[in-house]
Write a structure and sequence with these properties.
The complex is a heterodimer of chains A (249) and B (312).
Chain A: E1 2-6, E2 9-11, E3 33-35, H1 37-51, E4 57-64, H2 68-78, E5 82-87, H3 94-108, E6 112-116, H4 127-135, E7 139-149, E8 152-159, E9 162-169, E10 172-176, H5 188-194, E11 199-202, E12 215-221, E13 230-232, H6 235-245
Parallel strand pairs in A: 1-4, 1-6, 4-5, 5-11, 6-10, 7-10
Antiparallel strand pairs in A: 2-3, 7-8, 8-9
Chain B: E1 2-6, H1 16-26, E2 30-37, H2 41-48, E3 53-60, H3 69-79, E4 85-89, H4 92-104, E5 110-113, E6 115-118, E7 121-126, E8 131-137, E9 142-146, E10 163-165, E11 175-182, E12 195-199, H5 209-219, E13 222-225, H6 227-231, E14 252-256, H7 262-268, E15 273-278, E16 291-294, H8 297-311
Parallel strand pairs in B: 1-2, 1-4, 2-3, 3-10, 4-9, 5-9, 12-13, 12-14, 14-15, 15-16
Antiparallel strand pairs in B: 6-7, 7-8
Helix pairs in contact in B: 3-4, 5-8
Classes of the chains: A alpha/beta (249), B alpha/beta (312).
The complex binds flavin-adenine dinucleotide (FAD) and adenosine monophosphate (AMP).
């Protein structure tokens, strides 16, 4: 079967983002960009399925500006077979991304799409569920384990009270949680090899999707900042402060 | 304007984050709630008592027994024509279901709102809470998940709403519930606790979490953890506090052996009082702590436990 893995280019998780002084979003100029960490986990999971002989081909897809091609190269260096770049300078929100991915699913007919549970920039946690809805497919979100057996996907999900396992008819959507696997680093030879792997470039228009955003960001502000407090010298002083000053115990 | 809130419950009681979602919905207009599950009579009765709820819709059917997203989303879509806003708490369950509902309605969901500005405009944290975006939706219907820490939950009692059955609809059985392994604890839930004590990589092992348990027992606190502690297998996944775990804002949050990475701070920095115990005086957690104790936790925790004992 074919696997499709959407990978998003985001501000690296180590960067402490700053709100732009004009309130128009966060500063991204000169900031390190990387693949969304949950998407690395998705790529890794796809590669493991292929290594187990459960999948033949892994297609990585990234949607956004031309530089998303770098994110695709990272996926190819990890082990994806080919890439699709849906290139646009327009702001893409999950509904548009899901519609574009649906159009790609129609072309490529994968049996499984593995996405990250959440992009760490917009923190939406929505695209996978939305793609599942548009396709009429079942969804296994926040996966910490994935097994393919008897033509179904057995997905263990991280839920609020612990873990839950669901069985999904294929084709299906899976979104990754942190404990699904530990993504590999691309080796130098694989990085070289990835340069020769094909990347196809498409546009929203070619896929017949209007990507216009539905949410307008009116302003972006800094959250209220916490004042650093005091150092206490001992446990006794801590307990005293909590009881008599903060009055929380 | 009428809002419908998908009310999360455990078969017996309504979850506290769901009561926060009702509080958010009350800022929008009349509030109806949906209780779905199997054998949910008691929960529907409890829902009817929530202050400000005008109507309870009860969907009692085997299809909803395990909260699977596919049938629940179809049910919400069937009910959607009567409502301007559809909401749920931004819990694992709400986040699973609501985006699916939104896509079926051709709506861009508004995830994890921390404030309501008006019927179309909401505030939501982005970039691990390092920025707050005020967003205005152009969709005719809004599909929303609610960050519980942004809204004081409505009381459990005070209302008396009528209960009506949900329409029967059918969803093809594309997904099946297989099993659940739920953590059992006598302690309060993380998202409802007044006090939380969390451990990080510095705890070194799952066994050492007993040091935290002893204190949690004395304070009636919940126990949480950093991602590093969960990844290392010290505690189950549902202990994780942070950008991609649970978002909490208790009266008192005690971080022990946690460095204070942005992703962890994202989940707890709205707590009223923060205490950090860490042996590294440079640890970033001290930048948000009201009270910082530079100490070896293996010395500090037993002392703390004893001091609390003497207090009571
Ligand atoms: C996509 C993504 C999502 C993430 N989501 C989350 C999330 O939701 N929640 C989360 O917590 N993290 C999350 N993280 C991980 C985060 O970046 C940090 O790696 C993690 O929070 C570190 O956990 P820690 O503070 O326990 O460990 P460390 O950073 O290793 O800190 C351990 C601390 O313990 C102290 N210590 C050690 N021994 C002792 C002792 N004997 N006494 C006192 N102090 C001691 C050390 O000084 C140190 O400060 C995420 C990361 C990514 C990439
Ligand atoms: N522009 C994009 N390009 C590729 N994948 C994306 C894009 N946006 C979202 N995704 C996928 O959807 C997941 C969830 O994103 P979100 O719903 O925005 O939190 C990500 O982890 C990606 O797998």
């Amino acid at each position: 079967m074919k696997l499709l893995v959407p990978v998003k280019r985001v501000v690296d998780y180590n960067v402490k983002v700053r709100v732009r002084s004009d309130g128009g979003g966060v500063e991204t100029a000169g900031v390190k960009m990387s693949m969304n960490p949950f998407d690395e986990i998705a790529v890794e999971e796809a590669i493991r399925l292929k290594e187990k002989g459960l999948a033949e081909e892994i297609i990585a897809v990234s949607l956004g500006v031309a530089a998303c091609a770098e994110t695709l190269r990272t996926a190819l260096a990890m082990g994806a077979d080919r890439g699709i770049l849906v290139e646009t300078d327009a702001e893409l929100q999950p509904l548009a991304v899901a519609k574009l991915l649906k159009a790609i699913v129609a072309k490529e007919e994968p049996k499984l799409v593995i996405l990250g549970k959440q992009a760490i920039d917009d923190d939406m946690n929505a695209t996978g569920q939305m793609l599942a809805a548009l396709l009429g497919w079942p969804q296994g979100t926040f996966a910490s384990r994935l097994l393919i057996e008897d033509g179904r996907a057995l997905v263990t999900r991280e839920v609020d009270g612990g873990l839950e396992t669901v069985s999904l008819a294929l084709p299906a959507i899976v979104t990754t949680d942190l404990r699904l696997n530990e993504p590999r680093y691309a080796s130098l030879p694989n990085i070289m090899k990835a340069r020769k792997k094909p990347i196809e470039t498409l546009t929203p228009a070619a896929l017949g999707v209007d990507p216009a955003p539905r949410l307008t960001v009116l302003k972006t502000t800094e959250p209220p900042r916490r004042q650093a407090g005091v150092r206490v010298g001992s446990v006794a002083e801590l307990v005293d402060k909590l009881k008599n000053e903060a009055k929380v115990i | 304007m009428t809002a419908l809130v998908l009310l999360e419950h455990d078969g017996r009681t309504i979850k506290q984050p769901a009561r926060s979602a009702v509080a958010a919905a009350r800022k929008l207009g009349e509030v109806h709630v949906l209780v779905a599950g199997e054998g949910i009579g008691a929960v529907a009765e409890a829902a009817a008592k929530l202050p400000g709820v005008a109507k309870v819709i009860a969907a009692d059917a085997p299809a909803y027994a395990h909260g699977l997203a596919e049938p629940l989303a179809d049910l919400l879509v069937a009910l959607a024509p009567g409502y301007t806003h559809l909401l749920a708490a931004a819990t694992a369950s709400g986040k699973n279901v609501m985006p699916r509902v939104a896509a079926l309605l051709d709506v861009q969901p508004i995830s994890d709102i921390s404030a309501v500005v008006d019927a179309d405009t909401f505030v939501r944290p982005i970039y691990a809470g390092n920025a707050l975006a005020t967003v205005k939706s152009a969709d005719a219907k809004k599909v929303i998940t609610v960050r519980a820490t942004g809204f004081d939950p409505v009381a459990a009692d005070g209302g008396s709403a009528p209960i009506a059955p949900a329409p029967a609809i059918s969803t093809p059985e594309i997904s099946r519930f297989v099993s659940a392994e739920l953590s059992k604890s006598e302690r309060p839930e993380l998202t409802a606790a007044r006090i939380i004590i969390s451990g990080g990589r510095g705890m070194q092992s799952g066994e050492n979490f007993h040091l935290l348990d002893a204190i949690a027992d004395k304070l009636h606190a919940a126990v949480g953890a950093s991602r590093a502690a969960v990844d290392a297998g010290f505690v189950p996944n549902d202990y994780q506090v942070g950008q991609t775990g649970k978002i909490v804002a208790p009266e008192l949050y005690v971080a022990v052996g946690i460095s204070g990475a942005i992703q962890h701070l994202a989940g707890m920095k709205d707590s009223k009082v923060i205490v950090a115990i860490n042996k590294d005086e440079e640890a970033p957690i001290f930048q948000v702590a009201d009270y910082g104790l530079v100490a070896d936790l293996f010395k500090a925790l037993p002392e703390l436990s004893l001091a609390l004992e003497n207090l009571s």
